[in-house]
Design a protein that fits this description.
Length: 420
């Protein structure tokens, strides 16, 4: 399930027209593909009563995309105030929203509780006394430490800053009960971009075991277990595709077994970002330069301010030169942006068809943690976002940043703290 053939077939023939109309670079997302993947997720887990996906807003925080999540009846996983605001703007409210932050401030707690509230997912035991209005429903993020191995993006659980330890679980829920909590959830997120489905099955098993342990100790039953995000997608054509159906089947069996043994089962939530939208986005950028020094470079008009993942994680993103699909790869290029960092490269020593200036390059799988991770270092601004709608029309869903935007934070009243 990398950038689908169907998305390529609908996008590539019209890419030049879109580029002419809107200018490059831009991220473009596939409405049909997102909705289809969302339905696939719901169908796969339909055997678990009350299953719900809370879309990880950080992956693609755009109101038009969140509207699609609403259409799918997904909730919203938020971890900042702007994400809360956006989720509420598109109609999310109350328990449609899960607020999973860490190093949370009082301001954030208040925002999470405002306007109908949200499900509060606490990252630490010390926060119990800091939540201003302790809610009736509370969830903790569990960090299994040495009980699990993590993976490269999220790190080894022992070294990860997230969650409460195994040893803290019982006291965390006990303290929450003492503050008046009556409804409970349990959350974890131990891996990111993981394509081994058995890892997720083990995560579900782990949470079910903790849930049984807490019930035995404290006599409370969890309303839901949230197995987090982190389903991997094949960024490279050599990557395996995660077997969603096998994962869903085995997790459903685990929940059924739990129900037989305990007479009830919690609902299951998850908060996928990448898996839902990642393959349904592409960054379209134009080749604007050639350079032959010790290597051959193609300079493009996007840079890492539009897509950080290659520089940040050394991540592979597949690249097509639009219109050259059938040609043999005949050159080896580094595809570079304009930012003053040598790791501002979308591809390193990649075999590609010969690229001419003016060619459009499609950088695959930018529909999650792509535009959203953008930044403004070096005065390099974030590009626009477009939506390829189901009917074939193309909608601007976020304009490109302008120089005026860049200077906006320099508009303020003079404010000097005199020397003390
Ligand atoms: C708490 C939490 N949930 C969900 C996600 C989404 O992860 P993914 O997009 O890999 O599914 C993240 C990503 O960083 C996260 O931090």
């Amino acid at each position: 399930m990398p950038m689908s053939q169907s998305f390529q077939d609908r996008l590539f023939p019209i890419a030049a027209d879109i580029a002419e109309h809107y200018g490059t670079p831009f991220h473009i997302y596939d409405e049909a593909g997102i909705l289809e993947t969302g339905e696939q997720l719901k169908k796969a887990f339909s055997g678990i009563e009350g299953f719900r996906e809370y879309y990880a807003v950080k992956a693609l925080p755009n109101p038009r995309i969140l509207e699609l999540m609403n259409e799918l009846d997904f909730g919203f996983d938020c971890s900042s105030i702007p994400e809360l605001i956006m989720s509420r703007q598109v109609g999310g409210s109350g328990e449609d929203i899960m607020f999973t932050s860490n190093n949370t401030t009082e301001e954030e707690f208040l925002a999470a509780a405002a306007e109908g509230g949200s499900i509060l997912n606490l990252d630490d035991i010390s926060l119990i006394s800091k939540v201003p209005e302790f809610p009736e429903l509370v969830c903790f993020r569990y960090n299994p430490g040495p009980r699990r191995t993590g993976n490269i993006i999220i790190g080894n659980p022992v070294e990860a800053k997230y969650g409460i330890t195994h040893e803290q679980v019982i006291s965390a829920y006990k303290m929450a009960m003492e503050r008046g909590t009556k409804r409970f959830g349990l959350h974890t997120m131990v891996a990111s971009n993981e394509r081994d489905y058995t890892y997720m099955v083990e995560t579900a098993r782990m949470l079910l075991q903790i849930s049984a342990m807490v019930e035995e100790e404290l006599g409370i039953r969890f309303e839901f277990l949230n197995i987090g995000g982190g389903l991997g997608i094949p960024y490279s054509p050599d990557d395996n595709i995660l077997d969603l159906d096998a994962m869903a089947k085995e997790i459903t069996e685990l929940f059924n077994e739990f129900k037989s043994a305990h007479g009830y089962a919690p609902r299951m939530y998850m908060e996928r970002g990448r898996w839902v939208t990642g393959p349904h986005g592409a960054l379209i950028t134009q080749a604007i330069n050639h350079k032959s020094i010790y290597r051959k470079y193609v300079g493009v008009d996007a840079c890492m301010s539009s897509l950080m993942r290659p520089a940040l994680y050394d991540a592979y993103h597949h690249i097509d030169v639009i219109g050259r699909g059938d040609q043999e790869n005949s050159e080896t290029y580094d595809i570079a942006g304009s930012l003053c960092e040598n790791n501002d490269k979308f591809a390193v020593q990649r075999d590609l068809p010969t690229i001419h200036e003016g060619d459009l390059l499609a950088i695959h799988d930018t529909g999650a943690h792509g535009h959203a991770m953008g930044f403004q270092y070096n005065g390099r601004l974030r590009p626009k976002e477009l939506l390829l709608r189901t009917g074939g029309s193309v909608e601007l869903i976020r304009r490109a940043e302008t120089n005026e935007d860049y200077f906006q934070t320099l508009n303020f009243d003079e404010n000097v703290l005199p020397a003390q």
